[in-house]
Amino acid sequence: MTTKISTDLGSFPLVWVIPLALYLLTFVLVFSVKSPLTADRLRLVLPLALLPLIYFSFKPAGTLAGFTAMLGAYFVISLAAHRMLFDARPDARHLTVFYLTMSVGGALGGVFNSIIAPVAFDRLTEYPVTVALCVLLLAGRSRNLPREIAMGLALSLILLLPLLDVLPVIGDLSVNLRVLGMMILLAVAYMLLYRQRLVPVVAMISVMGIWGVFGREADVIYDRSFFGLHLIDDEDGLRLYSNGTTVHGAQRLSEIGQRPTPLYYYHPNGPLAQVLATPTAARAKTVGVVGLGIGAMACYIQDGQDWHFYEIDQKVVDIAQDPALFDFMPRCGQGAQLHLGDARIVMQGQTDLKYDILVIDAYSSDAIPVHLSTLEAVQLYMDRLNPDGILLFHISNRFYDLTLPLSGLAQELGLEARVWERNAPDGGQATQFERGDVPSKVVALARSTAALGEIGQDPRWVPLAPPQIPFWTDDHADLLSALR
Prior knowledge:
This protein is α/β, with parallel strands linked by helices.
């Protein structure tokens, strides 16, 4: 649960604490003979609790409402599981072994999720498989076990139909409608077969297990590292690279094998490209980029410039440099230097390296690496900039408004700050843009208006609003204060 939420919302202590706190609270609530939360009562609401977990096994949560629903379902299922654990407790003579075994099991679960799973699986397989195991809590005793298991396996094939492109009418439906159709079939099956609960239970376990292992197959690659999920897919004439649930770059399939045009946030019409196309940028000798992605920005390298990319994830480096996947680095960035590791740590050792332009573009899905946006981090960036250098923050994000902490940082350090939020035309959706061109948001910081160059005179770049929240530091960074 923590891994799935932190992929989108961000990996920071509060995200880790909330699931853990709910987990521990369920022990307090049900480990008592006087608790009104009996196993039989909790089983009645388990089907409702399982619905959001099943739904978000097939698609990203995407919104705060989705995350809240997932946590609520997780809470109810934990209550049921721990109540059943309480009911299964031995007599007093064996309680020590009982509690020791329970504690060791919890520790092993943590080791599996944090260390083993990222190595063993190329996607978030443990989530749907765990949900499938939670369905077992619904199972009752059966008088005809083989028959009901066979019926459940047959039912699972029917439940899987909405998720497959076996019929043209199904292939034309959105993912939401497909998942909804599958869940309606599941609910109907559970109501019709309530007296044979093992049938829908076996069916749902089969669906979740099959989809967890084989589902959501990418056209090109699906991989995973300790820093997130990596998906490369071919869709509508584009090869898309997604980290977690967010597309971070694309290349036209028609340009495979040749010098490509940067797309998405790096499109020639976007703020980042507009900055790199100014005469001020043309005079820049040294440019740094924190966050490699697929290397789209490398195609803005001009003759005589020295570019440096910082990337913490070796898997991202492998993807960007593979000419069979993307052409940005192989065709445009052959002369660029690549520094593997945490950008702040690497930069601290590069005391002799000064940049004219430094771009901070290090995001995993929509998660924010807070340590790259604190006072101490910006002080380091400014120290690595020449006196008339420009610091750019790419802050396009579904969940956070990073202009809020950056405004405070600019004021604290006495920097000139501008922001350009490029939205879809006429307030519409991104689909109204040219294919491969999406809305984006960039903040520019410099020591003076003169250092901003053309940005300072461009009406599209407006001053940041006055600070509304405290700026972030390494000791205190309230990420929720920037939540939309």
